[in-house]
Amino acid sequence: MKKIITICALLAAFSVGSASANETQFDKLVAEDGSKFRSYFLNKFASVEVTDYVNGVYAIDAKSREQWEEIEDFPPYELSIDEGQELFEKPFANGKSYASCFANDGINVRKNYPYYDLELSKVMTLELAINLCREANGEKPLGYKKGDIALLSAYMAYTSRDETFNIGVPNQAAYDAYLDGKKFFYSKRGQLNLACSDCHLVAAGQKLRADIPSPALGHTTGFPVYRSKWGGLGTLHRRYAGCNKNVRAQPFSAQGEEYRNLEFFQSLMNQGLVLNGPSARK
Fold it and tell me: Which CATH number among 1.10.760.10, 1.20.120.1810, 3.40.50.200, 3.50.50.60 corresponds to the domain 1-282?
């Protein structure tokens, strides 16, 4: 299951917040941020094609890429996709299934998450939507970091592979959530006094102890991910918590407002990149 992205026409179509009849003033502001964000990496890694950023650190480190390409012939998450599909199609006690909660029966909808839910007045992520579906059908919510939630997310992500994010910023409240996520990304925290941007923007491509931080561009496209360190699949918010621990900061709750807004910001910066989850990382 070779997953390395090679897109013929996407590069020409790549744009953050491309103009449309429904584009808001807030979409335009976010597009300006996204253009600067993208340009930073294209200037820093001039030889890397923009479409390759969905592959994380493997886009910028040749040695790591060689090992990863070998793994991708028989990816460790392959069986997880099948397991996720079985869970997705298994009826709830009331006879309904996850398909009843999502547009298009849940197929090819990952590209629409996260989005700002106007009715609930908060950012809605795919994992949060999965648990809201369960609760609406009388089922107990799942844990947000690994296990069944990651399997379900992996299957739903797989059905959106090679699609691009299709999210926007419809109003001031959504823009405020975006700004909150942006602030989180650039704010220093923990005993090491580091921000997300310190590692994944400024130090991307440099050696930090034994690791090379991945570029922030493309971060949210491949989740959930199978990490060798975890020995299994994990969600984006599990990774967020791990990053907070690495800088010796107290992690926030998975699917709490802080991480959902951060995911919203990062995903908007990734507009135009294709989704390639689930994926494998170190």
Answer: 1.10.760.10
